Amino acid sequence: MRKPFSIAFIVRDPLPPIRADLLTLFGAEMPRYGLQTELVGQSGSGAAFACASTSAWQAGGMHPVGSLASRFASVMSPLWDLAGLLRARRRGRLACIQVRDKIASGLLGRIAAGLLGVPFVYWMSFPIVEGFEVRRDEIGRRKRGLAWLAHAARAAASRFVIYRLVLPGARHIFVQSSAMADWLAAKGFARERLTPVPMGVDADLFERSRIAPSTDPRLDGRRVVLYLGRIAQSRKSDFLLDVADLLRRDLPDLLLVIAGDAPSNDEMAWMRAEIARRGLDGHVLLTGWLPQEAALGYAVRAEVGLSPIPRGTLFDVSSPTKLVEYLALGIPSVANDIPDQALVIEASGAGLCVPMEAAPFAAGVRRLLIDPHLAAGFAARGPGWVRAHRTYAILGKDVAAAYARILPEHAA
Q1: Band of the pLDDT at 93, cuts 50, 70, 90?
Q2: Cα 155 to Cα 152: distance, rounded to the nearest angstrom
Q3: Which CATH number fits the domain that encloses residue 355?
Q4: Is the bond preceding 16 in cis, omega lying within 30 degrees of 0?
Q5: What integer pLDDT is reported at residue 219 of this predicted model?
Q6: For 351-366, what is each residue's pLDDT tens digit?
Q7: Could you tell me what percentage of the chain is helix, strand and coil, using 3-state DSSP and rounding each to the nearest 5?
Q8: Nearest CA-CA partner of 60 in 89, 85, 31
Q9: Quick one: 165 and 278 in the same domain?
Q10: 309 and 170 in a common domain
């Protein structure tokens, strides 16, 4: 039997990982194909994992160096990642070095891979450079001072490093969606070097029959519509309130459940203020952060799921999880027309795809609430499509096949 091989995987997310595309895909699925992972990155809190051992990650090793809570994290993380990479190297011979969504560490990873004589692989789940440019432009619209100059310099330097130095040196690039692969191909990167890995679900966790419905009495007797995900001004989360405001006019028992948190207290306060300003306190339930089990309990009480994602460079290449989660749970859904969501709706036949405008969204929700036959058909088609196309077992097979092409000498 061929010995499992390991990749050193430098990640942007806090360690230990909580995102399913790391925790499930690399923690559970890749070991089935003989791939172990040495995770390298920063801990999510000051000292929680300062002494974490490599045994904390059963699919290989975990090497947290530094903390994302540190005020020096943005400057120090490349050096911390280098230290973690050296720890991973001491664990044994590596098949490749892979970096996810980091720019300076991506350059260090490429150099280290060259010195070790192993392939360099990049994993792009978000267009980081374009995110920096959006932030630069937001500041520039207010005032062009030192803050704008610093953000402009960061964006320019990042663009040069990622597109001229990091990605050209990658043997392969994993991307978030087919739309992102097309976007990078248009920039000159060979399409055969790009593998889309969209977001999926853990089939066991999203088996509806195993989920206990929420007993929150505020849901009783209401027509529950759900948004499962993060709240942020950059995501235009107040759009959800515009939709609820339209729906309540002829559906007085409507209740929009927003099951998710915001990246900061300021963002959550903004959302609460918007709810109050519109007089929607009796029609919107903002739960804040919930454990996954509790959030899914609210989800299975919903009649319709909402997935509005703003159009534009940052999100058009994304692969939102929430729509796939709704479908896995058998929740009829209304989503807007970013490429991945349009593909999922068309292929699954389990929801409605509309522009991200309040009136079409409200009309789609209303249609599902008043037409139980249509809603039942969508609900019936969603779980089967997800099991066939978007579970991590299915996605893991595709990723493993890509590694077999990238690293044929190590393929199981």
Answers
A1: confident
A2: 5
A3: 3.40.50.2000
A4: yes
A5: 98
A6: 999 999 999 999 999 9
A7: 50, 15, 35
A8: 31
A9: no
A10: no
Q: What's the rounded Cα separation, in Å, for the pair 298 and 343?
A: 26
Confidence of residue 4 (pLDDT cuts 50, 70, 90): low
Do 177 and 268 share a domain, yes or no? Answer: no
Q: Are residues 381 and 400 in the same domain?
A: no
Residue 45's pLDDT is what? 58
Please tell me the number of Cα atoms within 13 Å of 155 on its side-chain side. Answer: 18
> What's the rounded Cα separation, in Å, for the pair 20 and 6?
20
What is the per-residue pLDDT for 336?
97
Q: What are residue 5's DSSP bridge partners?
A: 35
Query: What digits encode the pLDDT tens for the residues 264-289?
Result: 899 999 999 999 999 999 999 999 99
Asked if 365 contacts 334 with a C-beta cutoff of 8 angstroms, the reply is: yes
Cβ-based neighbour number of residue 107 at 10 Å: 17
* Collapsed DSSP state (helix, strand, coil) of residue 195: strand
- Structural domain including 120 reads 5-200+392-410
Helices (H) and strands (E) in the chain, counts: 15, 13
Residues forming a β-bridge with 7: 37, 96
* Average pLDDT estimate for 202-224: 96
Mean pLDDT of 228-256: 95
The residue type found at 202 is D
Number of domains in the chain: 2
pTM (2 d.p.): 0.91
What residue type is assigned to position 87 of the chain? R
Taking only the tens place, the pLDDT of each residue in 133-144 is 998 998 888 878
The backbone torsions φ and ψ at residue 266, rounded to the nearest 5 degrees and listed phi first, read: -65, -40
Tell me, yes or no, whether 165 and 219 share the same domain: no
H or E element that contains 122: strand 120-124
Structure tokens belonging to residue 351: 């929801």
How many residues are present in the chain? 412
Do 144 and 282 fall within a single domain?
no
d(CA 277, CA 148): 32
Q: Are 343 and 316 in contact (CB under 8 A)?
A: no
Cα three-residue angle 99-323-364, rounded to 5 degrees: 145
Same domain? For 189 and 230 the reply is no
Q: Are residues 264 and 123 in the same domain?
A: no
